[in-house]
Amino acid sequence: MIWSWNYFFFGVYPFIAGTTFLVGSAIRYEREQYGWSSFSSQILASKHYMMWASNLWHVGILTLFLGHFTGFLTNILEWLGADPVEHQWIAASAGITAGVLAMIGGLMLLLRRLLDPKVRYASRFMDIFILVWLLITLSFGLGTQFISVPDAVSGHVQNMQILIQYVRSIATFQPDPALIRTIPIIYKIHMFCGMTVFLLFPFSRLVHIWTVPLNYAIRPYQLVRAKIRSVI
């Protein structure tokens, strides 16, 4: 394949970002156990404010991640009987809903970090930068809906089909960046921003995702007893 910027950003860069994501996370886990957490600063802000900001952000982002994974890498919707146009409508509806929730929550979190003196003092540069970058990525993702929705209305879903083929070519280590050479630029910018999130992942607080305490939902209850001191 002839070298080009399209080939680098969408044929090589995904593997640079993916390798950094995996290797960097492993190295950080091995060498920086103390820094392996979200360093929550909720104690520095209103609990009511943080409940809305954190929940909106996490519900929105996790829904988007799950939607991207199932929509691009599996055939779940097709197995359920959805045709390509219905697939695009479902993806657009879920994406807009989850994207708006995440955007509201993310902006609330960003304003808190920038405007609350205590939280700003406790924040590192990367804490603010990664949040801004995620919001930029999210903005371009929402921007793609101005193309996706009209495509769904008209019944033309070629862009979605091309993107699915491209993502699967990356997932199977057979990259074919030529597939997306002619798709609208906003999709490419969104994908580049998304891949860069994986590149930045090991250097940010996002690493706490690896050790999210899912076992809390199934582990046995802890019985806590107060220590009673005998009086002599």
Class derived from helix and strand content: mainly alpha
Order of helices and strands: HHHHHHHHH
What is the number of strand segments? 0
Stretches where pLDDT falls below 50 for ≥5 residues? none
Tell me about this structure.
It is a single chain. The chain is an all-alpha fold and 232 residues long. The chain contains nine helices and no strands. Helix 2 packs antiparallel against helix 4. The mean pLDDT is 87.
What topology emerges from the helices and strands here?
Elements: H1 5-31, H2 47-73, H3 76-79, H4 84-115, H5 117-122, H6 125-143, H7 145-154, H8 158-171, H9 185-200
Keywords:
67% helix; mainly alpha; 232 residues
Describe this structure in a few short sentences:
This protein is mainly alpha-helical.
